[in-house]
Write a structure and sequence with these properties.
- This protein is α+β, with helices and mostly antiparallel strands.
- It has 4 domains: 44 residues; 190 residues, Penicillin-binding protein 2a (Domain 2) (Alpha-Beta Complex), CATH 3.90.1310; 327 residues, DD-peptidase/beta-lactamase superfamily (Beta-lactamase), CATH 3.40.710.10; 113 residues, Trypsin Inhibitor V, Chain A (2-Layer Sandwich), CATH 3.30.10.
- It is built from 20 helices and 35 strands.
- Strands 4, 5, 6, 7, 12, 22 and 23 form a 7-stranded mixed beta sheet that branches. It has a 5-stranded antiparallel beta sheet with strand order 14-13-27-26-25, sandwiched between helices. Strands 3-10-11 form a 3-stranded antiparallel beta sheet.
- The protein is globular, with a radius of gyration of 36 Å.
- This is Cell division protein FtsI penicillin-binding protein 2.
- InterPro entries: Beta-lactam/transpept, Beta-lactam/transpept-like, PASTA_dom, PBP_dimer, PBP_dimer_sf, PCN-bd_Tpept.
- Its main location: membrane.
- One of its GO terms (cellular component) is plasma membrane.
- It is a single-pass membrane protein.
Length: 722
């Protein structure tokens, strides 16, 4: 028995030893694994695919993006076209658990009162607001107010905030301000927020200059890092700037605000009276290529977005069309320059057969046998075909290429199309001579016309004057006059200028309606057929693209004006008469711009020289105007002047009115007592369609004072003599 006990005891001891060794080995192995794992985690800073360093930073650091200020878009004189702005989304906290830091209620306490007050500032009834403020379940924390609660101006936000309604809060969002309303809108473009509900979201350009220069305008965002505790509360003195932001550059356009505003007024008038499917008006400085005005219809309001669904592109460069008879400027140029032009040679007008196709003049009966010198003046298609045949298709094609027809101009606008030339058949070759079977864009034609204006030297159209870095104040890029070829000789250009003048002055010229007294205008008219989807061309008196291209003055052009109009739906006047309602007053404005409306006396003491008030505070500007013994009128709710009429440097009689446009929402001023001339200043500076009834001084206006006038439609003003 004792022997058995001894054996059992030895066996137990051995088992304990084995177990102990196993535990020791397991412990040692585990320790080694732990050391290896710890070393790996220490070195890689990762565990189970998670970056521990980043996780710790996320827990104890709060990273905020510092949005860079988007650069401004300005006109040639520095007047604001598009600028950085802020909008607000409103929301309401409805959870009774929400408290302020001092323990007060931070939720909607009085639903009836809150709805009643908000209804004064939001386009919602008190009943609708009560429904929004009623939580759908007890766990709901906050509510929003749909589209009506988004995109609020700073003025509306301030008015609501001043009521100190418990539970009412705002999200601040970056936005874009377009203080001029409709103002070269499709060319300038607009922006959209990348995330409409994120206050850290950026805005990006989606059309025009805003899109083309988006990277330059956007600048570079920065970061702000804040240390926080376990509960997310900010630790004192913990703010760290990891990366500073750099504001976007300011882009100066070649547009002249005074000319542009007037062009918008003329375009709107034509659009309302005749309803064309498309209208384009361009003014280019003939010497430099600087585009001083450019607009189109249909267009849209960049602030409200009204009209965007029918005007989502810049037709000046993104649309191509057959130019029609304005192409004859190039045909005549090529014929003269190539030595094939014989002005005294007679040809039979009316119709001609080319490649099995009958080509006719607009007057299909013709004018009998007439000299080639009258073909351009009468806008004879048959005469142009004769010139093309005499040159030969090879020579004519060479000249079209010299004029860069079928090539992009490279203007700083997105989406430019190159156009095309159909030249396979004899009939196509002949038709290009009068602007059919060839597609162009509007800027391309302006470039070609510049050769006639500049002694044969073709100038690239420019829309950008310079780019300025606001962080340093330095100009980082300048756009200067650029000669892109010399398709014709200077002597040829002079002959074509004279021919364009005869279109206006000869009793058989097609442009007599464009005669502007006191101004030596030269023009070429155009009527282009429109291709039918079913083949061939559309029929009907209004199914054309009507156009006029003018040189002002014809013999030494300072300006080129090009107007095109497609398919007016209410053609109550002849197309030439309709276009003259744009062309003639615009020419007068171009010739007279910069001239003082009155002539000062020799001493000049009774006239007041207008100072520059741009970028000055509204209050300081009003004080300055009062000190000069002048009247004032303020449009908008902003604290800074972005535009003025009359412009600085002009001289006016004492007691005249200076009209100021400020930043912020464009609101209607009280026009009571304003003269008709003052009302015209209001129309020009806002770009709004204003109809005046009567004479004298304003006694009534259709839009109330203080009302936002973007998208308000036509404004009717009634005047009476005192």
């Amino acid at each position: 028995m004792s022997k058995f006990r001894k054996l059992f005891k030895n066996k137990a001891r051995r088992n304990h030893y084995i177990v102990g060794m196993v535990i020791l080995i397991a412990t040692a192995f585990s320790f080694i694994l732990f050391i290896q794992r710890f070393a790996y985690i220490s070195m890689s800073k990762q565990y189970d695919g998670v970056n521990l360093e980043q996780r710790t930073k996320q827990k104890y650091e709060h990273v905020n993006k510092v949005n860079a200020k988007r650069g401004d878009i300005l006109d040639v004189n520095g007047d604001m076209i598009a600028g950085d702005s802020t909008i607000y989304n409103i929301y309401a906290i409805v959870s009774k658990k929400s408290k302020t830091t001092d323990g007060k209620a931070d939720y909607v306490v009085d639903r009836e009162k809150t709805a009643r007050i908000l209804s004064k500032y939001l386009p919602l009834s008190a009943k609708q607001l009560r429904q929004y403020l009623s939580p759908k379940n007890k766990d709901q924390y906050q509510v929003e107010f749909g589209p009506s609660g988004r995109g609020l101006s700073i003025e509306i936000k301030r008015k609501i905030a001043a009521k100190k309604l418990p539970g009412i809060h705002f999200v601040e969002l970056p936005s874009r301000s377009y203080p001029n309303g409709v103002f070269a809108t499709n060319l300038v473009g607009f922006t959209q927020a990348n995330n409409a509900n994120d206050q850290n979201s950026n805005i990006s350009g989606v059309m025009g200059i805003e899109k083309y220069f988006n990277k330059i305008l956007a600048g570079r965002d920065g970061k702000k890092i804040t240390k926080v505790d376990n509960s997310g509360n900010e630790l004192p003195d913990s703010q760290v700037i990891e990366k500073s932001s750099a504001d976007g550059s300011n882009v100066y356009l070649t547009l002249n605000s005074k000319i542009q505003q007037y062009t918008e007024i003329l375009a709107q008038s034509i659009d309302e009276k005749y309803e064309p499917k498309d209208l384009q008006i361009l003014v280019m400085n003939a010497k430099t290529g600087a585009i001083e005005a450019a607009t189109q219809r249909p267009t849209f309001n960049p602030t409200t977005g009204k009209g965007l669904d029918t005007s989502w592109r810049d037709t000046l460069v993104e649309d191509q069309f057959e130019p029609g008879s304005v192409m004859k400027i190039l045909t005549l140029s090529a014929s003269i320059d190539s030595g094939n032009y014989n002005p005294d040679e007679l040809y039979k007008s009316g119709t001609v057969e080319v490649g099995g196709r009958t080509i006719g003049d607009w007057n299909t009966a013709g004018w009998g046998y007439i000299p080639l010198s009258e073909a351009f003046t009468r806008s004879s298609n048959v005469g142009m075909v004769k010139l093309e045949e005499q040159m030969g298709p090879k020579t004519w094609m060479q000249y079209m290429k010299k004029f860069h027809i079928g090539d992009k101009t490279g203007i700083e606008l997105p989406g430019e199309v190159a156009g095309s030339i159909s030249y396979e058949h004899l009939s196509d070759q002949a038709m290009t001579s009068f602007g059919q079977s060839v597609n162009v864009n509007t800027i391309q034609m302006l470039q070609a016309f510049s050769a006639i204006a500049n002694g044969g030297k073709m100038i690239k159209p420019q829309i950008i004057k310079k780019v300025v870095d606001p962080n340093t104040g330095k100009t980082t890029k300048t756009y200067k006059r650029k000669v892109v070829g010399q398709p014709i000789k200077a002597s040829t250009a002079k002959e074509v200028q004279k021919a364009m003048r005869e279109v206006v002055t000869k009793n058989y010229g097609t442009g007599m309606v464009y005669n502007v007294p006191g101004v030596k205008v030269g023009v070429k008219t155009g009527t282009a057929q429109i291709a039918s989807p079913a083949g061939g061309y559309l029929t009907g008196s209004n199914n054309y693209i009507f156009s006029v291209a003018g040189m002002i003055p014809y013999n030494n052009p300072n300006y080129i004006v090009y107007v095109t109009m497609r398919q007016p739906q209410k053609m109550t006047e002849a197309p030439e008469k309709i276009l003259s309602e744009v062309f003639n007053p615009l020419v007068k404005r171009l010739v007279n711009q910069g001239k003082s409306p009155t002539k000062a006396t020799e001493a000049g003491s009774q006239y007041v020289s207008i100072p520059s008030l741009l970028d000055k505070s509204t209050n300081d500007s009003l004080t300055k105007i009062k000190d000069l013994n002048l009247q004032s009128g303020v449009i908008g709710t902003g604290n800074k002047v972005v535009q003025q009429l009359p412009a600085s440097g002009e001289k006016v009689m004492p007691d005249q009115r200076i009209v100021l446009l400020t930043n912020g929402a464009m609101t209607m001023p009280d026009l009571t007592g304003w003269s008709k001339n003052d009302v015209l200043k209001f129309a020009e500076i806002t770009g709004k369609q204003v109809t005046t009834k009567g004479d004298g001084y304003v006694v009534k206006q259709s839009v109330k004072s203080g009302q936002v006038i973007n998208g308000s439609g036509k404004i009717i003003v009634t005047l009476k003599n005192k």
